[in-house]
Design goal:
single chain; 248 residues; two-stranded antiparallel ribbon; 8 helices; 13% strand; signaling receptor activity; Folate receptor-like domain-containing protein; signal; disulfide bond
């Protein structure tokens, strides 16, 4: 009789639709300030945030604040070690716009604790295309920083984050010897350096030309549905074989 109950439970699990998890991961915004509750069109996004104008998790005001020398979003300055080369700064502005505006990060959203808005969230290991990491790294090699992880560990002075004591300013190459180091370390593994190319459809582009459409929509769909359903199927198959052996 107990074995019959197990089989009924197993059959119930097999009946779960294979795409149940994927639907909740598409076209959403993470629960994090200053993200919107849900993506919607924003006709007046500023400069590097323009690609997300058709469906954005950021407001026009957020996109403007992201471009200030001392960003009002995080009260943080990209030029904490002196002037940053324009091409390097552009990559960071694109990365910030990508993080704040993209509605295609659902498969990589992780809960990190409670806040006044409920569960606070961030992204983890979002796979950036190989070209995105390599060009970012190449254009920043001659700019300076004092830390490999910008997510925390700063010394706060007069309301602004500054380099910690004994953290010397060096060219990016000192703190990020490879493109993967830059993509993965800069914001506590929010991004992952993917070996895939932009043309593969299996990695995210942190910026794209608006006229060509958003290539990350298809990538989010790819990561949202098959992995979870196949993982569940494999687990159920192993469990089925285990019960079959016990019933003999």
């Amino acid at each position: 009789q107990a074995m019959g109950c197990w089989w009924q439970l197993l059959l119930g699990l097999w009946a779960v639709p294979p795409t149940w998890a994927g639907r909740e991961l598409l076209n959403i915004c993470m629960n994090a300030k200053p993200h919107k509750p849900a993506p919607s069109p924003e006709a007046k996004l500023y400069e590097e945030c323009i690609p997300w104008k058709d469906s954005a998790c950021c407001t026009a005001n957020t996109s403007w604040e992201a471009h200030l020398d001392v960003s009002l979003l995080y009260n943080f300055s990209l030029v904490h070690c002196g002037l940053m080369m324009p091409d390097c700064q552009k990559h960071f502005l694109q990365a910030i716009c990508f993080y704040e505006c993209s509605p295609n990060l659902g498969p990589w959203i992780q809960r990190v604790g409670r806040s006044g808005w409920g569960w606070a969230e961030r992204i983890l290991d979002a796979p950036l295309c190989r070209e995105d990491c390599e060009q970012w790294w190449a254009d920043c090699r001659t700019s300076y920083t004092c830390k490999s992880n910008w997510h925390g560990g700063w010394t706060w002075s007069r309301g602004k984050p500054r380099c910690p004591a004994r953290a010397l300013c060096h060219p990016f190459l000192h703190y990020f010897p490879t493109p993967a180091d830059l993509c993965e370390k800069i914001w506590s593994n929010s991004f992952k350096a993917s070996p895939e190319h932009r043309t593969s459809g299996r990695c995210l582009q942190k910026w794209f030309k608006p006229a060509g459409g958003n290539p990350n929509v298809a990538v989010a769909r790819l990561f949202a549905s098959p992995a979870s359903s196949w993982g569940l199927s494999d687990t159920l198959l192993a469990f089925s074989l285990f019960l079959l052996l016990l019933s003999r």
